[in-house]
Amino acid sequence: MTKGASMPTTAKHTPAGKDVPRQRHLPGEEGMWVFIFGDMTVFAMLFGVYLYYRGADTAEFNQSQLLLNQTFGVVNTLVLLTSSLLVVTALRAVRGGALELARRLLYGAMACGVVFIVNKAIEYGEKISMGLVPATNEFFMYFYVMTGLHLLHVVIGLALLWFMVTLTRRPVRGERQQRYLEGAACFWHMVDLLWIVIFPLLYLVK
Questions:
Q1: Which segments carry the region annotation Disordered (predicted)?
Q2: What is the CATH architecture of 70-204?
């Protein structure tokens, strides 16, 4: 037997008992990501304009900021962070086949979204009763515009969370339905991310 014939082949094989790793893919549909990046670009421009005018009249913006109740912002931040954690856990539950658990987690995330809306409505009512409306000054104009647009996204996100619940009721879901679930979850995480930027900009930055 020649030396070459005695050499073992170098064919790759998977060790017994181990699964072949799945190929990584972008979660959700491509169209959802186009929408998310476009939406975040609009908000980024709005944040830039706000910071520009804040720099032009720092004294007025700082005085107006003192009229905000930071407790509302802190509570809403904790609520949205909790909701995002619930959505992530729900997706893992779906992949593991625990659909009933996934639905309960999504209901919890929706409850957090409702708490956010109620909290924001109370804050708006408090500010309006103090005579602080969009026409008061530039700071409150941006306050209502940014938080109002974000509130609209929370409402849309709640509708998408409900859509996720309806998908988990299906005994069988194809790849497309799974991507719908991931896309809706990504939108909700974007809503969370936007608030994490809005909160310090309006309530904390001096």
A1: 1-24
A2: Up-down Bundle (1.20)
Q: Pick the range with the lowest mean pLDDT from 34-38, 64-68, 75-79, 185-189.
A: 34-38
* Backbone dihedral region for residue 28 (phi beyond 0: left; psi -120 to 50: alpha; all else: beta): left
- pLDDT tens per residue across span 103-157: 999 999 999 999 999 999 999 999 999 999 999 999 999 999 999 999 999 999 9
Q: Is 131 left (phi over 0), alpha (psi -120 to 50) or beta?
A: left
**Band (33; pLDDT cuts 50, 70, 90):** confident
How far apart (Å, rounded) are the C-alpha atoms in residues 185 and 87? Answer: 6
Element (H, E) at 8: none
pTM score, whole prediction: 0.83
Helix, strand or coil, per DSSP, at residue 47? helix
Element (H, E) at 146: helix 138-168
Tokens coding 26: 């972008």
End-to-end alpha carbon distance in the chain:
82
Side chain identity at residue 53, one-letter code: Y
Query: Which two structure tokens, joined as six digits, stand for 52?
Result: 């520009």
- Which residue is it, tokens 């608030």? 195
Which residues have C-beta within 8 Å of that of residue 117, sequence separation ≥ 6? 151, 154, 155
Residues 176-203: b if buried by 16+ CB within 10 A, e if exposed: eebbbbbbbbbbbbbbbebbeebbebbb
Residue 70 has pLDDT above 90, yes or no: yes
